[in-house]
């Protein structure tokens, strides 16, 4: 009998050991998310146990003992109603403030982030480093360095999800979204698509390799030599003859692009927008939507002539033409 | 026994016979049963899809079907369960049967419109079935474009039209109920004497009327883009991919409350009946139903925290989502307090009610994880979300539906079912449900995305547990189907009021006559003024009769 129960216990223990309860925690924000998660779990457990215990207690204590039993009248109590309105409200306020503060902090990438550009397509992830190397369904990043990921999609909506970093963001067709993370532990972590995207949605997965800075440098240098994204963009820039209007010697058909990135720009519509990735993208694909005052709207659309990857390379080139502080910093 | 030959007297079931008398009936009670027949069928379709999915997920590489088939299974499960089962479940069956009787009316305000609503619903279901039989759609129940509009190779438009058509049934039913509750109440049945079930269905009807047109427009726009490539949602043709999500959730979040509010109404009836107590905090429960109905329309953005929606929009939707939790919490506390010093008995409907309170509490509290912006980023789109909304829609809405069916079955059919089997089934459902869905919370926190036909091996143990639970749950659903059908012929006669419950429906014979009451009732007291006068009860229900 003893032996049997011990075997049983061992079997249960072995089963429990097989069940993971926590995902790896490998970014600067994952600990904060986990703390909030455990607080929420605590609150859930407390109220679930409270309600279950009260119900069980009442079930036993006030069970019907005879069919003719008439329960005494109880009256609605304003004190009770107020307390179970106000106490949950206060808990919700605390949770809201905590979660929102964390979210706002987590949504701002540090200024010194390195960048990765990601394109989702049915059913794989294309990733490109500014230095040039391209990857498919794999991402190599150094430990301890903040990484800003710019996402877009070539077809349907996908979602870039790295559970170990507690980050997730949709990759939408036709626009850029952004997330960032700073890995804290070298290792290999799941990359998932978390937005249903068709037949092979569950195979749109990959691995994130977090490497020590020296390993990462070796990895970057190890691959076949590639041009940087900006260089690739420069080639496209001349290939499409963009320079005839936007170049240094152009006759002013179009605005010079040197130093335009990151600067507020007044549009013909009267709106003022900071020139970011989204604005440059619009200027290439739907130039009429970001017309500048003082220029003839002669620029044709390049929709259909450049793919998402090339748009990103052109953007990288425009960015390389310098920020407002260092005009023509090439 | 002053109504001794109950079954032999004329009632709505035996007043006339034949298929014509059912298909052309304008009796709200018969229409309720027509709905019951259809949604029992749709429930079996949606349930079978779920069983196949869970079987498939026993193996990380998938044990049963190709990914395309799996995608169709979860889409079919979601679409059928939401649009063709849960949305009409309690309102169209129990609501149709009970609203006129509970308020002391002869029928709903527009009986012929009521029958038309059923035909419209059947037409919608038929379109849905055609879509399933011609291969099935693979878009998920959420139909996100541009996948659904320009990429899926499945009969999306047929399915969308099914939802579009069925929506009109919801709108007309809601309209019928609102007018009925406003205009048809018996003398003395003031607003604050209404049973809480009526308040809950009133709030539900408002959502039906205000929300359903939005989903109708949304699926119509989807059809336009799919059929004629009108650029609405796909940026490749000039659309906005997030516009659909805004429109879809503007309806579909309130739709969650279409599913849960009627169940809350049922629970208020069950808790009072089986503890023979006036409900604690009547007006708090009534007004919290209305508060939920209103706030539910302004929380849709919490489905979109990771879409790139602005941080400020996220903050607003987060705080509103926390607000909608409060009226739900108020209800749970009031139900629990109703038990205090009651005279509590534990027949099957009460077991479902108590199960509801427990599971709904967990479902509601786990909603806080998703209203919290920071944790939602991690949990959005994972099995955590699947577990959370099944605790609400199955642990909540479906438990309430089953509890209600068991509670009013003797009124509807005039017969009792075997109480022991019913209690056993309730226990099996409770255990099976938790075994199925609790592991999914852990899976979601570990990071397993939903809608995955294959998955990494480390998630297998939890998936096997969940699948095992699903088979237990399936047994728990089949047992009531068997004994309820059995009871229609062989069950002992129930009498007017087998539970000794308050409410006008228990003052009329079981089954009620076509005109509902022998003499039109006049209401002289509030709801739930227990005890019931001894001569009006017929304590021959199992578990009560042996005293």
Tell me, briefly, the overall form of chain A: elongated
Summarize the biggest pleated sheet of chain B. none
Task: Tell me which protein chains meet in the greatest interface and how many residues each side has.
Answer: A-B, 87 and 93 residues
For the record, what is the CATH homologous superfamily label of chain B?
Answer: Cytochrome c oxidase-like, subunit I domain
Short synopsis of the structure:
In chain A, 38% of the residues lie in helices and 19% in strands.
Quick tags:
heterodimer; A: 330 residues; alpha+beta; Immunoglobulin-like; Cytochrome Bc1 Complex, Chain D, domain 2; 12 strands; elongated; B: 547 residues; mainly alpha; Cytochrome C Oxidase, Chain A; 16 helices; globular; disordered C terminus
List the helices and strands and how they pair.
The complex is a heterodimer of chains A (330) and B (547).
Chain A: H1 2-18, H2 30-61, H3 78-106, E1 114-121, E2 124-128, E3 134-136, E4 138-142, E5 147-153, E6 158-162, E7 167-171, E8 177-181, E9 187-193, E10 206-211, H4 213-222, H5 229-239, H6 243-246, E11 264-266, E12 272-274, H7 277-285, H8 308-320
Chain B: H1 19-23, H2 28-56, H3 67-86, H4 89-102, H5 111-133, H6 147-151, H7 156-183, H8 196-228, H9 241-275, H10 282-295, H11 311-339, H12 348-371, H13 373-379, H14 383-413, H15 419-446, H16 460-490
Report on this model:
The complex is a heterodimer of chains A (330) and B (547). Chain A folds into two domains: 173 residues, Immunoglobulin-like (Sandwich); 98 residues, Cytochrome c-like domain (Cytochrome Bc1 Complex, Chain D, domain 2, Orthogonal Bundle), CATH 1.10.760.10. Chain A contains eight helices and twelve strands. Helix content of chain A is 38%, strand content 19%. In chain A, strands 3-2-1-5-8 form a five-stranded mixed sheet, with helices on one face. Chain A has a five-stranded mixed sheet with strand order 4-10-9-6-7. A two-stranded antiparallel sheet of chain A has the order 11-12. With 330 residues, chain A is of the alpha+beta class. With 547 residues, chain B is mainly alpha-helical. Chain B has one domain: Cytochrome c oxidase-like, subunit I domain (Cytochrome C Oxidase, Chain A). Chain B is globular, with a radius of gyration of 23 Å. At the A-B interface, helix 2, helix 3, strand 7 and strand 9 of A face helix 3, helix 9, helix 11, helix 12 and helix 13 of B.
């Amino acid at each position: 009998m003893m032996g049997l129960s011990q075997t049983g216990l061992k079997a249960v223990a072995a089963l429990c050991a097989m069940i993971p309860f926590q995902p790896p925690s490998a970014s600067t924000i994952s600990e904060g998310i986990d703390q909030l998660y455990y607080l929420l779990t605590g609150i859930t457990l407390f109220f679930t146990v409270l309600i279950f215990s009260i119900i069980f207690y009442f079930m036993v204590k006030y069970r019907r003992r005879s069919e003719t039993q008439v329960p005494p009248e109880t009256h609605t109590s304003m004190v009770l109603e107020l307390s179970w309105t106000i106490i949950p409200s206060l808990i919700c306020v605390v949770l809201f403030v905590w979660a929102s503060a964390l979210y706002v902090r987590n949504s701002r990438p540090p200024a010194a982030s390195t960048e990765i550009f990601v394109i989702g397509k049915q059913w794989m992830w294309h990733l490109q480093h500014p230095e040039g190397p391209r990857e498919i369904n794999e991402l190599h990043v150094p430990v301890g360095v903040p990484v800003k990921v710019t996402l877009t999609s070539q077809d349907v909506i996908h979602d870039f999800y790295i559970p170990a970093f507690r980050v997730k963001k949709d990759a939408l067709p036709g626009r850029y979204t952004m997330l960032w993370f700073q890995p804290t532990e070298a290792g290999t972590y799941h990359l998932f698509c978390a937005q249903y995207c068709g037949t092979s949605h569950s195979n749109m997965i990959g691995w994130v390799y977090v490497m020590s800075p020296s390993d990462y440098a070796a990895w970057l240098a190890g691959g076949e030599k590639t041009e940087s994204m900006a260089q690739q963009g420069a080639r496209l820039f001349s290939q499409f003859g963009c320079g005839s209007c936007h170049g240094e010697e152009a006759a002013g058909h179009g605005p010079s692009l040197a130093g335009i990135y990151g600067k507020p720009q007044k549009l013909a519509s009267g709106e003022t927008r900071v020139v970011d990735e989204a604005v440059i993208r619009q200027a290439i694909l739907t130039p009429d939507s970001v017309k500048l005052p003082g220029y003839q709207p002669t620029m044709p659309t390049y929709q259909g002539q450049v793919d998402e990857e090339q748009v990103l390379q052109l953007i990288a080139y425009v960015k390389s033409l310098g920020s407002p502080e260092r005009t023509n910093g090439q | 026994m002053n109504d001794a030959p109950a079954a032999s007297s004329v009632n709505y079931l035996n007043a006339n016979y034949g298929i014509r008398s059912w298909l052309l009936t304008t009796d709200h009670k018969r229409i309720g049963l027509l709905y019951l027949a259809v949604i029992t069928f749709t429930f079996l379709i949606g349930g079978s899809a779920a069983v196949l999915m869970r079987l498939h997920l026993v193996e990380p590489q998938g044990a049963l079907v190709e990914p395309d088939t799996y995608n169709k299974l979860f889409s079919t499960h979601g679409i059928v369960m939401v649009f063709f089962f849960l949305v009409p479940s309690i309102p169209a069956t129990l609501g149709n049967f009970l609203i006129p009787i509970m308020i002391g009316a002869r029928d709903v305000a527009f009986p012929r419109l009521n029958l038309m609503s059923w035909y419209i619903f059947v037409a919608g279901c038929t379109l849905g079935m055609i879509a399933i039989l011609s291969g099935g759609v693979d878009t998920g129940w959420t139909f996100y474009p541009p996948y659904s509009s320009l990429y899926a190779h499945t009969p999306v438009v047929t399915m969308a039209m099914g939802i579009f058509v069925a929506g009109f049934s919801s709108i007309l039913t809601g309209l019928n109920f609102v007018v009925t509750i406003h205009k048809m109440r018996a003398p003395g049945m003031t607003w604050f004497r209404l049973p809480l079930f009526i308040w809950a269905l009133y709030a539900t009807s408002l959502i039906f009327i205000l929300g359903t047109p939005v989903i109708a427009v949304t699926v119509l726009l989807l059809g336009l883009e799919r059929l004629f490539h009108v650029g609405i949602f796909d940026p490749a043709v000039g659309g906005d991919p997030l516009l659909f999500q805004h429109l879809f959730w503007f309806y579909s979040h309130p739709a969650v409350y279409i599913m849960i509010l009627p169940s809350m109404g049922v629970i208020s009836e069950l808790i009072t009946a089986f503890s023979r107590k006036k409900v604690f905090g009547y007006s708090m429960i009534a007004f919290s139903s209305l508060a939920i109905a209103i706030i539910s329309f302004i929380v849709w953005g919490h489905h979109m925290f990771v879409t790139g929606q602005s941080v400020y929009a996220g903050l607003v939707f987060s705080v509103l989502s926390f607000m909608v939790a409060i009226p739900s919490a108020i209800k749970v506390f009031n139900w629990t307090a109703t038990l205090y010093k009651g005279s509590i008995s534990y027949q099957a409907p009460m077991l479902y009610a108590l199960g509801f309170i427990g599971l709904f509490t967990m479902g509601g509290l786990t909603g806080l994880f998703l209203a919290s912006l920071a944790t939602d980023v991690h949990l959005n789109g994972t099995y955590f979300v699947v577990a959370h909304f099944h605790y609400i829609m199955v642990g909540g809405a479906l438990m309430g539906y089953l509890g209600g069916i068991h509670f009013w079955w003797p009124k509807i059919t005039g017969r009792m079912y075997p109480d022991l089997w019913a209690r056993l089934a309730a226990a099996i459902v409770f255990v099976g449900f938790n075994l199925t869905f609790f592991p999914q919370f852990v899976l979601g926190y570990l990071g397993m995305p939903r809608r995955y036909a294959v998955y990494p091996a480390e998630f297998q143990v939890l998936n096997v547990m969940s699948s095992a639970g699903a088979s237990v749950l399936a047994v728990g659903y089949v047992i009531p189907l068997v004994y309820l059908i059995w009871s229609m012929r062989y069950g002992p006669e129930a009498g007017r009021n087998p539970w000794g419950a308050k409410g006008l429906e228990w003052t009329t014979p079981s089954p009620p006559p076509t005109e509902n009451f022998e003499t039109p009732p006049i209401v002289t007291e509030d709801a739930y003024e227990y005890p019931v006068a001894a001569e009006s009860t017929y304590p021959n229900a199992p578990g009560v009769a042996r005293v």
